[in-house]
Amino acid sequence: MTIRAQRGSVLVSALAAVCVAGCVKQNSVESKAPSAAPSAETSALPDLELIPLAEGVWIHRSYADIQPWGRVSANGLLVIGPKAALLIDTPWNDAQMSELYAEVKRRFDVPITEVIVTHAHDDNLGGLAEAHRLGAHSIAEEKTLEIARDGGKPVPEKGFSSSRTLQSAAGVTAELFFPGPGHARDNIAVYLPDTKILFGGCLIKSADAQNLGNTADGDVSSWSASVDALEARFPEAEIVVPGHGDAGDRALLAHTRYLVSTHRP
User: Fold this and answer.
1) Catalytic positions, please?
2) pLDDT for the residue 45
3) In 10 A of CB 235, how many CB atoms?
4) How many other CB atoms sit within 10 Å of the CB of residue 109?
5) Where do the H-state alpha helices sit in the chain?
6) CATH fold for the domain made of 4-261
7) What's the whole-model pTM score?
């Protein structure tokens, strides 16, 4: 199998959201990336895509069939360095993780050596056991380690409390930050200062999201304050990537707060 890659010109959001199994159901549509992004070859694989976002930074988008909602997509980031790659969240499962690792080796000739897990849901760490088997090291907030361990899920190797600056083997700086609970009680965000990309993960909703989705593991009463903390922490962020749907700009933060304000249990 090969991985489908997309190319585009403008960041727009294009997916409606209904959350499941840790995040949201998305409609399957073509996504777009900034005109400054590198061009991408196009090939076919139904369950995994690489979408260029900025120089050396890609969205990896994986799909899973979740009943009764059908086909559900989830985002992570892939950062390519001269000798190694950094992964933010894994695909849904080990098979997809194996495919992604092989594609990165084939296309960029570097291994994935580090994985940042943003919270303990299947669409964030479902492929972590395979990543470990392939030699990657992993890190997450301490609460994620606890939740994963208690839930019988793959457990990240290292933990941190609240915030950490990671100097990755991929040659980029990644700022890991827990702004407070929202979608989940352990959801963190990752900021890449070199490209001004903020991976908000499932704490942040895409522009076409109509609701907060699955709040079973969340804390809706704290969600807006957590978004406020995230916005204050990274005021220079220009590109914002949600856990599901298309990337956008800082307006996604305000849209997420709006969805919180209109949420009805």
Assistant:
1) 119, 121, 123, 183, 202, 205, 214, 244
2) 54
3) 7
4) 9
5) 94-108, 122-125, 128-133, 142-150, 220-233, 251-261
6) Metallo-beta-lactamase; Chain A (3.60.15)
7) 0.86
